[in-house]
Amino acid sequence: MKKYHLFFDPNLDEGERKNFFEKLDPRPESTLSIDSLNWSDFSKEDFLLLWVNDEQGKEILTSFPEEGPKLIFLPHPELKLIAKSLGVPNSKETAFKNFQAVEEIPAFDLLEINGELCLNSLVIGDSLSVLYDSFGKGFFQNLKDRFSRFFKLFRQVDLRKFRITYQSGEEEKNLETAAMGVLVVPHCESNLIFKRLIPQSGLSDSMIHIILVSPKSLLSIISFGIQTLFFPFRRSTIPSFLTYISTPKMTIAIGEEIPFAIDGEEHQGSKIELQLSEKKLRILPNFESEKTKETKQREINVQKLPTGNLLEELTRRHLPWVRHATTEEFKELFTLLRQNSKASSSFLVLMALSTLIATFGLFGNSSPVVIGAMILAPLMGPIISLAMGALRQDGILVKNSLATIFLGILIGLFFAVIITWITPLKILNSEIVARIRPNLLDLGVAVAAGVAGAYAHSREEIAKTLAGVAISVALVPPLAVAGIGLGWGNWNVFWGASLLFGTNLAGIVMAAALTFLLLGFSPFQLAQKGLIVSVLILVFITAPLVLSFRNMVEENTLIENLSGKEIPHGLMREVNVLEINPLRISVTILSDKQLQESDYLEIKKEIEAMVGQPIELELTLGVKVFE
């Protein structure tokens, strides 16, 4: 059994004190008021149980001698800050049992901020309260609190410049960056944000733990807020706008007097010095999930902090809704787009080869061959370049892109026509028919592909997905079908395929331009004209697509209403709509007897009654045979 001394707050109820003292087993060596505490009466081998409030506890920690006794805090109605920092249980009996069970009490790190003791946390600016969960409340109250914190994110946010100096191993590092808030704690386990976001956190690791909140757009905060609101679980990685640093000491210089809070108390200053106290107090923490352990210094997302031009842009005005691209990103992307906008020899060769492969695949009614042509097709590059040129009013980029696209179209039509003249086949197979009746679904594919193409171009790490984008939008096959229509002299085929190609082109340009705008590659004022022109062209193309889509819906409705229906002369099977205006339908009638000519006329009338309009009918008879 451990020998110990108990010091209590004299303002506690005398009956409550007496009742608790009687339960103690073993009994304390002495039971004294905290006012009578004299450090010289105790050695480093002694145990002191402290039943005191926050003010008394902080005075104890401040006056603690170099070689003082071991400290154990008991829960007190006014011990809130220290209880949170040490994980003190709500029950005095539980705290006492924990003290009796522990074999050794190691040294406990204390944080000093500008020479003042900090027990729990330092907060500069906004601490991003949406990261916190609610505890000790009902389900609906917790949900209400989460929504309340979430909606607070929809407000103007300003980033403040910070000059940070900190120790990293043997090296001293200097950072000039910006953040909307900084959160500092002496122990990860004592703070919910650090426990949720920093894996393998612990106690008394001789490190100060810092999180800088440095979003580059409001949307990045809001999207994380949505995740936290609906999926409040411990994450294995922290979001990119949060930077974590653990270090033995750090200096934060702001350049102006700003407010900050130490353990919830407001302070003012332009320079904040953080360091661990030289005093090595031995205090019993009561955290269940993690025990005291040594951890190595870590830095997470430091390279993602805003610096240079991005730092200046983010601190010049309120935080933008969408992240602005940096000058470095502009340089890399514009170099790529300018290269793609030019009709190089590689572009011409790939355009010719992809058209040849697509045309042969179309005549052979082979989907795999057509897909191969899509992968090889180089048209996506100049179209994305055209979108950026239109967005930023870059005349040279627009002219080069249009010239390259026009040349690509000519090459595609030329080789498709040549192959059509050589090939004796003149049948509208399924691969060709699929590309002469575009509708709104094709426009949806083009828009999605434009977004994907622009995003893939702006992110080097996902550029490899461009082949998949090319397959999804299928630029060369409709161009080849248009060439087949020219070779046959069939203008319906030519105009239908041309409309599909134009739909893809307009949809990609508009969607890619809008994506580049949202990614911050152009201010809205500069982008207005290009976006308006793109939208007008898209609206012009959409009109026939709406009509085609309506016809497709009408065809599907007719097929659904007729297929499998029983009429007096038999069962209708294999219903196909050949033409909408006038309505031409192909139907197979499954009958159990041979039909006469008069029966065919009656069948036509029966179907007309079902569809509510005159029809042209192509009828196939199937007769059931019974043994």
UniProtKB/TrEMBL annotation:
<keyword id="KW-0472">Membrane</keyword>
<feature type="transmembrane region" description="Helical">
    <location>
        <begin position="531"/>
        <end position="549"/>
    </location>
</feature>
<keyword id="KW-1133">Transmembrane helix</keyword>
<dbReference type="Pfam" id="PF04087">
    <property type="entry name" value="DUF389"/>
</dbReference>
<dbReference type="InterPro" id="IPR005240">
    <property type="entry name" value="DUF389"/>
</dbReference>
<protein>
    <submittedName>
        <fullName>DUF389 domain-containing protein</fullName>
    </submittedName>
</protein>
<feature type="transmembrane region" description="Helical">
    <location>
        <begin position="468"/>
        <end position="488"/>
    </location>
</feature>
<feature type="transmembrane region" description="Helical">
    <location>
        <begin position="436"/>
        <end position="456"/>
    </location>
</feature>
<keyword id="KW-0812">Transmembrane</keyword>
<dbReference type="InterPro" id="IPR017438">
    <property type="entry name" value="ATP-NAD_kinase_N"/>
</dbReference>
<feature type="transmembrane region" description="Helical">
    <location>
        <begin position="494"/>
        <end position="519"/>
    </location>
</feature>
<dbReference type="InterPro" id="IPR016064">
    <property type="entry name" value="NAD/diacylglycerol_kinase_sf"/>
</dbReference>
<feature type="transmembrane region" description="Helical">
    <location>
        <begin position="346"/>
        <end position="363"/>
    </location>
</feature>
<feature type="transmembrane region" description="Helical">
    <location>
        <begin position="369"/>
        <end position="391"/>
    </location>
</feature>
<feature type="transmembrane region" description="Helical">
    <location>
        <begin position="403"/>
        <end position="424"/>
    </location>
</feature>
